Amino acid sequence: MTVQIDIDRLMGRIFALGKVGALQDGGVCRLALTDEDKQGRDLLVDWMTALALDIHIDGVGNIIGIRKGRKDNAPVMIGSHIDSVATGGLYDGALGVLSGLEIVAALNDHGVETQRPIVVVAFTNEEGVRFAPDMLGSLVYADGLSLEEALGITGIDGTTVGDDLARIGYAGDWPVGGIQPHAYLELHIEQGPVLETEAAEIGVVEGVQGISWTEITFDGTSAHAGTTPMRLRHDAGRAAAEFSVEITRLAEQMGESQVCTIGAVELHPNLVNVVPERAVITLDLRNPDEERLKAVEAGAAELLDRIAERREVGVKTRKLARFEPVAFAPAIVDSIEAHAAKLGYSSRRMYAGAGHDAQMIARMCPAGMIFIPSKNGLSHNVTEYSAPEEIARGAGLLLEAVLDLAGVAKATGDTQEATRQ
Ligand code: HGY
Ligand code: MN
Ligand code: MN
Q1: Model pTM?
Q2: Domain 7-209+325-410 is classified in which CATH homologous superfamily?
Q3: Which of 55, 122, 171, 255 has minimal Cβ neighbours within 10 Å of its Cβ?
Q4: Could you report the per-residue pLDDT of 284-297, keeping only the tens digit for each?
Q5: Cα of 225 to ligand 3 centre, how many Å?
Q6: Atom number in ligand 1 closest to CA 353
Q7: Which amino acids bring their CB within 6 angstroms of ligand 1?
Q8: What is the position in ligand 1's atom list of the atom closest to the CA of 355?
């Protein structure tokens, strides 16, 4: 009898976590470091406790559960996140963390001892929507940002990461990055249309595209909407609208691999009869090619200069996130592809369009990701969905890749002796 995941148990945990921060018409809102995030964290810690994991909370609130191995050497780390966007689904991030827990539960059930320890991590603030940048917990874990800087980040509600971590009781004392993984694996939903369109069962992720987030403030002059001739206006709202149209057009001219999103727009005073004196927008640019990402960033800067002059408004920019494209370790990518084939799953190699914790942990050890399809290619949408059989394939493949890396020292009552080193 070989070790197998229990899909009903995994789905049970996905639905139970999905009740935390549940929205009226489906989906979840568990913004990082809110009460809902705390509730989800507490539930995860309860599950980790029940699985007899050695649990630690580090300085940036990452939740780390350790399953001992025969040797006390570098572990195989399985991670993702349980915070969500405001219109989140049940699977983004949660799938990866809960599949890690399911692998621990399956190993416990079958009395399997691995050579290497196995660590399951839920990283803090992967979404980055309250506190930028995204992937914050894994970025600090991989020493890409100091803990002090991270704790000092002020979010869109005016609180700091440090204050909110303390408020929800997850300002841990464990050293960040305290465990150097042997390898890192993350199971995630694709969040796009590729696998579904091509009817591929598994995405073998080769890397993650580059990300550039900027907050842009246009400063004009408030004036009466009825009495002020168009030629005398310093209309911050119009400047922001023109920039949004023109940067989107520029991105489309850059070709299919360039994506551009104006996700947040705030006008001040945001009233029907007042020419806006201020407009604050966010610009999300992504491309798998660093040079092309730089080119579109330069294009955006030129556009801002032109529009500032045209509309006679001031423009200020603030960088919220900037990560170059990341390629995963070929050996890990090959192993995932080989295990998918062995299990009889169709797969295709691809780059990740979304940001993931794996791209940060790849700075410190060989890392890789497994994707399963997203219905209608939708995510960051309350209708986000992946079927149990797709989840079972992804988690089963993750189990095989983890056992390959961790090595099986002993398995009571089955044939999986120390076959994997
Ligand atoms: O923005 C992203 O790609 C991720 O969901 N944080
Ligand atoms: Mn995610
Ligand atoms: Mn997400």
Answers
A1: 0.95
A2: Zn peptidases (3.40.630.10)
A3: 255
A4: 999 999 999 999 99
A5: 39
A6: 3
A7: 126-128, 134, 354-355
A8: 3
